[in-house]
Automatic annotation (TrEMBL):
Purpose: Recruits the lipid transfer protein VPS13 to endosomal and vacuolar membranes.
Entries under Pfam families matching the protein: PX (PF00787)
Keyword Membrane in annotation: yes
Alphabetical UniProt keywords: Endosome, Membrane, Vacuole
UniProt cross-references to SUPFAM superfamilies, sorted A to Z: PX domain
Membrane topology, from the record: Peripheral membrane protein
Organism: Trametes cubensis
Protein's name according to its UniProt entry: Endosomal/vacuolar adapter protein YPT35
Lineage: Eukaryota, Fungi, Dikarya, Basidiomycota, Agaricomycotina
Length: 582
């Protein structure tokens, strides 16, 4: 609860020099309910928007000391102090505490939080310890990983001492330190979770004020938050999954001129193409001059329904990150005619009405659709490329002059048996490689003949990849990390050292693949995951044990410093351990 009068243990209110009688009016076009719903959607979804696929770069280091720079410089929003502090508060104090109710009948303690806004208005809010815990949880759920360390730990609970004055005074000081560290922080002090709390406090305060200086200060603060909050809110990805979300987003954009320029990231997942808001959305799209990330979950269906959408997206000059799932021919047309230079691309050609694009054309038609050719417009800028069910020709390679000097991450998922040499030649500075072969299981135990035929096919493709790297006289100097399944590493036939290898076993992996896969890699750090699923892999424990022992005692193990994940099968009668330092 909040009040205009200062309760016990409160600090003095700060006065502003605003003119008496100043009345600040908000535009009458504002749909308050729609705006509130949109704010809630963004805040609630911030922690859920992200990658939907496994085998990503979960523990790899930064891309490079020379990462691509963002198009948003620190002075682009000079008027809203984004280059300095985004916090809405300028002073925080917890002035005291008081007990509410009877100790024998469910009493609790509330703390008097005194928050002074940038405009000079002082707000008192009485909050229980649980409110701080809820805010802490919300910050943990919504803040990006690089800001998590800025959130200090809350003081611990002490049920047996919660009414002792000495304990309460100590907790008051600790909570004040915690709240100050959050609200006054130049970055997280303006995040959507805190902004949502600030607006709630102000709404509770409105009925208690009369026209006068305090009322003027409140309205000025409301105006400040109303004008500045979209700039902060729209830095997060806007999810558009339903017609209600789309309607709320469009209403939010109409409410104030200029909001389109603050949109930076969109995730469009709507399936209802007949929704009346869809045409308006794509009319607004070219006006989002700072849009740098676009995710289209049903890309090809959308492009087929309205081919003009391809041209609309292609003309967005600021686009840096593009994700298209359910891709097809129109998606390749979009990638070739983009005006912007992409930094990150994630394309999935799978599951388009059960007829993936590369199943509708013959292999001899694959070469013009090689990703290195399709994305050549962004050769100088591309740093990360994710390919899902993007098949390439098994013999024909693209132009050898293609060069992606800034490519640091490459992921290939469920794309058959790719030739790796074109990527080695075009991406000499690659840092992190993911390959999940994703080869389909036959759905029944393989006979000896089938197993032999399968392994022969893998071995033949591996040999072809090795010979191509030799004929091009080119391999990566040293990859920092590889992640994927064992069959995926085996068929690539990489001939370079790899610092860190993480393998995920599945039903296409065999113990005999382990030694050859790591012969050239000789990683310092090896992790083999999904131990609990080893029953679904091929070969019994003794086969894996023999392969692992041979691996660790041979030349591959001579460089290894740490191995983890399958140490429990190295000895039949010894307890499992998480890792072995070698």
């Amino acid at each position: 609860m909040a009040s205009a009068n200062t309760p016990s243990h409160s600090a003095e209110s700060s006065e502003s020099s605003g003119r008496p009688g100043l009345l600040v009016l908000l535009p009458d076009r504002i749909d308050v309910e729609e705006e509130a719903r949109f704010y809630d959607d963004i805040v609630d979804s911030a922690s859920t928007v992200g990658g939907d696929y496994p085998y990503g770069q979960d523990d790899s280091p930064p891309l490079s000391p020379h990462e691509a720079q963002s198009i948003f410089s620190r002075d682009i929003w000079l008027g809203d102090n984004c280059g300095e502090s985004q916090a809405f508060a300028r002073n925080v104090e917890i002035a005291g505490w008081t007990s509410v109710g009877d100790k024998r009948g469910g009493a609790y303690v509330v703390y008097d939080c005194v928050i002074t806004m940038k405009e000079g208005l002082t707000v008192h809010a009485l909050k229980r310890y649980s409110a701080f815990a809820q805010l802490y949880a919300r910050l943990r759920a919504t803040l990006p990983a690089n800001q998590q360390s800025y959130v200090p730990s809350l003081p611990p609970k002490a049920p047996l001492a919660k009414f002792r004055p000495s304990f309460l005074d100590r907790r008051r000081r600790l909570l004040q330190h915690w709240l100050s560290a959050i609200l006054l922080h130049p970055e997280i002090g303006g995040c959507q979770a805190l902004l949502h709390s600030a607006l709630y406090l102000l709404l509770l305060l409105v009925p208690t004020l009369r026209v006068g200086a305090a009322y003027d200060h409140l309205m000025q603060t409301c105006r400040f938050l109303y004008e500045e909050s979209p700039k902060i809110l729209l830095r997060e990805t806007v999810p558009l999954k339903t017609s209600i979300q789309l309607s709320g987003f469009l209403t939010f954009l109409r409410a104030q001129e200029g909001r389109l320029a603050f949109v930076r990231s969109l995730r469009f997942e709507l399936l209802d193409w007949e929704d009346e808001g869809v045409p308006e959305f794509f009319i607004h799209l070219p006006l989002m001059l700072n849009l740098h990330s676009l995710h289209l979950t049903h890309g090809e269906r959308l492009f087929q329904r309205d081919p003009d959408v391809v041209d609309i997206i292609a003309e967005i000059p600021s686009l840096q990150e593009l994700t298209v799932h359910h891709a097809g021919f129109e998606t390749t047309r979009l990638l070739k005619c983009l005006q912007s230079h992409l930094v990150c691309v994630d394309i999935d050609f799978g599951d388009l009405d059960d007829y993936p694009f590369f199943q509708t054309i013959r292999e001899e038609q694959y070469p013009p659709f090689h990703p290195l050719l399709i994305l050549s417009h962004s050769m100088a800028s591309l740093t990360k490329l994710v390919l899902r069910q993007w098949y390439t020709h098994s013999e024909i390679t693209p132009d050898p002059d293609l060069l992606y000097p800034n490519m640091r991450e490459l992921e290939i998922h469920n794309s058959g048996l790719p030739l790796i040499a074109p990527f080695v030649r075009a991406c000499p500075n690659l840092w992190h490689l993911v390959h999940r072969a994703g080869l389909e299981s036959r759905g029944h135990p393989l006979s000896t003949t089938e197993t032999s035929s399968l392994l022969e096919g893998y071995a033949a493709h591996r040999a072809h990849n090795i010979s191509q790297q030799a004929s091009f006289d080119r391999t990566w100097d040293q990859l920092h990390s590889f992640s994927g399944d064992l069959a995926g590493l085996y068929v690539l036939g990489l001939t370079c050292p790899i610092e860190r290898v993480t393998l995920h076993l599945n039903c296409e992996d065999w113990p005999a693949m382990l030694g050859p896969s790591l012969f050239y890699a000789r990683p310092r750090y090896l992790e083999i995951r999904d131990l609990e699923g080893r029953s679904s892999t091929n070969g019994d424990a003794s086969g894996w044990r023999e392969s692992l022992r041979a691996l660790l005692s041979g030349e591959v193990g001579s460089r290894m410093e740490q191995f983890s994940g399958m140490s429990d099968i190295l000895a039949e009668d010894q307890p499992a351990t998480e890792s072995i330092l070698l």
